[in-house]
Amino acid sequence: MTITITAFERSPDGGKGLARDTRVRWALEEAGLAYEVRLVSFQAMKEPAHLSLHPFGQIPTYEEGDLTLFETGAIVFHIAERHAGLLPADAHARARAITWMFAALNSVEPAILELVTARFQEGDKPWTKERIPLVVDRIRHRLNLLSARLGDADWLDGAFSAGDLMMVSVLLRLRLSGILDEFPTLAAYVARGEARPAYQRAFAAQWAINAAKPVAG
Ligand code: GTB
Hints:
Blueprint: E1 3-8, H1 21-30, E2 36-40, H2 42-45, H3 48-51, E3 61-64, E4 67-70, H4 72-82, H5 91-121, H6 128-150, H7 162-172, H8 184-195, H9 197-210
Parallel strand pairs: 1-2
Antiparallel strand pairs: 1-3, 3-4
Helix pairs in contact: 1-4, 1-7, 1-9, 5-6, 5-7, 7-8
């Protein structure tokens, strides 16, 4: 059955792979699944046809036969549950890998998104200068503990899993801020994720769409 995802027609990051279709592409590549991509403009995302796929008018979405999904956590989980390579067979190890997916999305990503909001959406507010150090401290606190937990392991819990795919995807968003480099253990972890052939293919696919048409600024 054909799998179709949606992605930005023109990603604001100009192909850095930071938009969330990259994590879905990565999961599909890890699972060895072919997929098609429908590119949507910011305007089309808010129109009824796309809103019927995604209630919040965002990308990515996932269509497979008569199934439509939104939310990258749900999409990656759907792929991981049905195909080898992203979740361990052992029931407990599988539950722990799923826990790491949730941890990435619920315990790490929100702090990072707060920084994005503070810098880019609220950068002109009078309180931004005082707020940013507080937000950065909250990120550092989380990363300190995550880094300690990872220690000298390659992945968060045994073999690479959807939990690592999600955590690496979330941490990648921090690279441009320089905060990731304050945590060499995590920077190396992210680099290991990026070095995976499946990630490379996912990155190249979004690059091919976005690099030729970056948005100014
Ligand atoms: N929780 C949802 C999920 O995980 O699927 C969040 C989906 C989401 O935020 N989608 C964004 C979107 O559609 C694209 S990824 N935004 C348009 C809108 O809301 O109108 C977020 C994103 C956007 C841009 C960059 N960038 O330029 O670096 C990085 C990430």
